């Protein structure tokens, strides 16, 4: 931890970053994001298992973008998110200083995104077998039972959009639900509106979701959104051989067009 | 702020073992009984089915009971074309509702919420729901680090806003304070379950929530805080979702959505949140609160400033839900302490 604190203080002191995004302990003991602008604030820095939030989401925030150079402490999910954002041309060159702490507690400052790509390749996250079990159980049900399951889950949605807000991949400055001239999808939090919202979001995340499962963590209604993202991710891997957050360049499964693509399904 | 109190009409006791009977009697009478239920990490209010899925082990429910008066989506009016003429239907709310297990702070929150809607122009559906809803509050035995009712002039023993307030006094007994006519009527319908009791001192049976901040000082100085630099740095974690507003018992903002075609349609009132970027976006494209720090400031100043000016009361009841639910760890107590420190 001291090594990390020294590194952050050094980056701030030498003006290599004007703000550093990390974690600290709140008044109630909950670990929350911290935004350090001065080296003398860094003593508050916290990094450990409780530091869950994917900080990559803050690189889109207009107030953060005002800072000329941003430093960020990234866990493995934040690294994947940042790499995916880079591949989607969402991160300017020389804007971010990305720092991580590896499993041997060594502080690593990445020189570029190629280094992040190879770091991620060496640090594969093991597939969560519990999640896979949950999905398999759901898949073993009949179509009608699965429908009932999702009707029950999604009708409880209150449309607070915490899932969208916490998601590093949800960076549209105007979301489809906010396009209201005319209204594209139904926005009230009734069953139809909730289904349209979650299906639309999942489609937009296909092959872009890096599976940090922050949407599930933050949902006030405890809707298991990770079941949808995990299933879509595994389908994408199976059908198109693509996994998000692995490469500096990529083809998007759902919006890449080739002249020899099949067309016989279009009627 | 003074400790809020109401006038108690009557005192009773209820055996905790008889709660099952009480709930089933209410259910049989055809009323809608809302009770706390648990789904994973979330506790919320939902219709009573049987005693086994009623949750009793909670500091505070994740979701407030406000939807009993102000649902997340409600139909205000609907129309249908029938034989060439349009038939317009207004909603009717006749079913009586009993809410069981809300906390004393929630009862005050719902009182604020109904005062807001019934203040000048009485809101039709909220008025009907208010008239048809009886609140059975459960005094708090425990609290957590996010509870701050005592800092806003309330306490786990407050009875303001409740129709009946139950306190667990040990030996398998609830001590019931019957506060309103509605409460009296409900007890009368189930009188066999309740025994007469003398007034007792509740204080030793309820949680002692420590003071977090001085709200008198906050109200006095709130005008000076508008231009504080702290809003910007403290709101950096805020991601602009509506979780805080939607779990809040006193957040009353809504948006009107019309869903219609030439044959039929409905006008719906939906929860809205001042944390959303488009909440204040004008048709011209101008947004008077263009950045998140402006929106966060508005939320805090509304709770502790604007509602004091407009309705002579704080609109924060210290339930701590916004703190517990925030995806990014925003904490209204921290913000207030930080402002007061300056």
Structure in words:
The complex is a heterodimer of chains A (267) and B (342). Chain A is of the alpha/beta class and 267 residues long. Chain A is 39% helix and 10% strand. In chain A, β3, α3 and β4 form a beta-alpha-beta unit. In chain B, strands 3-2-6-7-8-9-1-10 form an 8-stranded mixed beta sheet. In chain B, strands 5-4-12-11 form a 4-stranded antiparallel beta sheet, with no helix packed on it. The mean pLDDT of chain B is 94. Chains A and B meet through β2, α2, α7 and α9 of A and α7, β12 and α10 of B.
Short description:
Chain A has helices at 2-13, 62-65, 76-87, 113-122, 129-139, 143-155, 162-166, 191-205, 214-218, 225-240, and strands at 19-25, 31-36, 70-73, 96-101, 107-109.
Oligomerization state of this entry? Answer: heterodimer
Question: What percent of residues of chain B are in strands?
Answer: 15-25%
Structural class designation of chain A: alpha/beta
> Nearest-angstrom radius of gyration of chain B?
21 Å
Domain count of chain B: 2
Within the largest sheet of chain A, what's the order of strands? 2-1-3-4-5
């Amino acid at each position: 931890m001291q090594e990390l604190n020294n590194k952050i203080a050094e980056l701030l002191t030498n003006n290599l970053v004007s703000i550093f995004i990390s974690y600290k302990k709140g008044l109630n003991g909950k670990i929350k994001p911290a935004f350090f602008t001065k080296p003398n604030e860094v003593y508050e820095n916290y990094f450990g298992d409780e530091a869950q939030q994917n900080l990559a989401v803050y690189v889109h925030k207009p107030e953060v973008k005002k800072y000329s150079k941003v430093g960020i402490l990234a866990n493995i999910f934040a690294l994947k998110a940042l790499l995916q954002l880079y591949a989607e041309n969402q991160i300017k060159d020389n804007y971010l200083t990305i720092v991580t702490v590896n499993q041997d507690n060594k502080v690593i400052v990445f020189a570029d995104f190629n280094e992040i790509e190879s770091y991620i390749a060496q640090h594969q996250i093991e597939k969560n077998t519990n999640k896979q079990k949950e999905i398999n159980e759901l898949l073993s049900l009949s179509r009608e039972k699965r429908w009932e399951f999702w009707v029950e889950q999604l009708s409880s949605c209150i449309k607070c959009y915490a899932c969208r807000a916490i998601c590093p991949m949800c960076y549209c400055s105007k979301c489809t639900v906010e396009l209201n001239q005319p209204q594209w999808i139904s926005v009230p939090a009734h069953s139809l509106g909730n289904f349209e919202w979650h299906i639309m979001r999942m489609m937009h995340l296909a092959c872009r979701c890096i599976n940090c499962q922050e949407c599930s963590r933050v949902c006030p209604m405890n809707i298991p959104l990770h079941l949808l993202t995990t299933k879509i991710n595994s389908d994408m891997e199976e059908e198109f051989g693509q996994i998000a957050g692995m490469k500096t360049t990529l083809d998007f499964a759902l919006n890449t067009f080739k002249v020899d693509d099949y067309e016989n399904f279009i009627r | 702020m003074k400790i809020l109190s109401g006038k108690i009409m009557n005192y009773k006791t209820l055996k905790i073992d008889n709660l099952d009977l009480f709930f089933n009697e209410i259910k049989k009478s055809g009323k809608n009984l809302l009770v706390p239920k648990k789904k994973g990490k979330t506790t919320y209010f939902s219709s009573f089915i049987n005693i086994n899925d009623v949750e009793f082990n909670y500091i505070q429910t994740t979701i407030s009971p406000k939807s009993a008066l102000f649902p997340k989506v409600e139909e205000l009016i609907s129309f249908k074309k029938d034989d060439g003429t349009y038939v317009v239907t207004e909603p009717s709310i006749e079913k009586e509702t009993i809410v069981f297990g809300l906390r004393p702070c929630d009862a005050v929150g719902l009182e604020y919420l109904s005062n807001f809607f019934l203040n000048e122009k009485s809101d039709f559906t909220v008025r009907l729901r208010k008239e048809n809803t009886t609140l059975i509050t459960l005094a708090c035995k425990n609290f957590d680090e996010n509870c701050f009712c005592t800092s806003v002039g309330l306490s786990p023993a407050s009875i303001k806003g409740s129709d009946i307030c139950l306190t667990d006094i040990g030996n398998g007994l609830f001590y019931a304070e019957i506060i309103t006519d509605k409460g009296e009527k409900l007890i009368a319908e189930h009188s066999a379950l309740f025994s007469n009791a003398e007034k007792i001192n509740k204080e030793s049976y309820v949680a002692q929530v420590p003071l977090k901040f001085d709200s008198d000082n906050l109200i006095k100085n709130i005008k000076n805080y508008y231009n504080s630099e702290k809003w910007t740095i403290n709101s950096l974690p805020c991601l602009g979702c509506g979780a805080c507003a939607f779990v809040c018992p006193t957040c009353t903002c809504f948006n009107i959505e019309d869903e219609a075609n030439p044959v039929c349609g409905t006008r719906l009132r939906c929860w809205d949140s001042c944390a959303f970027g488009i909440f204040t976006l004008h048709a011209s494209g101008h947004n008077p609160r263009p950045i998140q720090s402006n929106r966060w400031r508005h939320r805090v100043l509304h709770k502790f400033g604007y509602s004091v000016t407009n309705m002579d009361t704080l609109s924060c009841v210290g339930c701590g839900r916004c703190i517990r639910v925030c995806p990014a760890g925003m904490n209204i107590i921290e913000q207030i302490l930080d402002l007061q420190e300056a």
